[in-house]
Specification:
single chain; 65% helix; 3-stranded antiparallel beta sheet; mainly alpha; 3 helices
């Protein structure tokens, strides 16, 4: 069974070309910077006002802008801060667990 195109439908060919270009450009966009919405549009997750774009081309133009770059720096800084807070809380929890075990051990030696 063959699914070849029949005829010279240039509009269909152009649509297929645009899809291929969009797929190639979408691979260039990191997953944490943009999200594909259910209606086929793209939303920037870095900028605080969450702009919505119809095409990947418009999203790539937005990503090159000054405001996006500034928000990207702020976003990375915030992600790093969240990661260090998670690490600190995990260390504090671990230390509390160790202190609890030491108290149990000290009580067992006292009796």
């Amino acid at each position: 069974m063959s699914f070849k195109r029949e005829g010279d439908d240039f509009s269909l060919l152009n649509v297929i070309k645009k899809r291929r270009v969009a797929e190639l450009l979408a691979n260039d966009v990191p997953g944490d910077e943009a999200v594909l919405m259910a209606n086929g549009r793209y939303a920037c997750t870095v900028c605080f006002h969450r702009p919505v774009f119809d095409t990947v081309d418009m999203l790539s133009i937005h990503r090159k802008g000054k405001k996006h770059e500034a928000n990207l720096v702020r976003h990375h800084r915030k992600q790093k801060e969240i990661a260090t807070l998670k690490l600190k809380r995990a260390q504090e929890l671990h230390l509390k667990q160790l202190e609890g075990k030491e108290k149990v051990i000290e009580k067992s030696f006292l009796f």
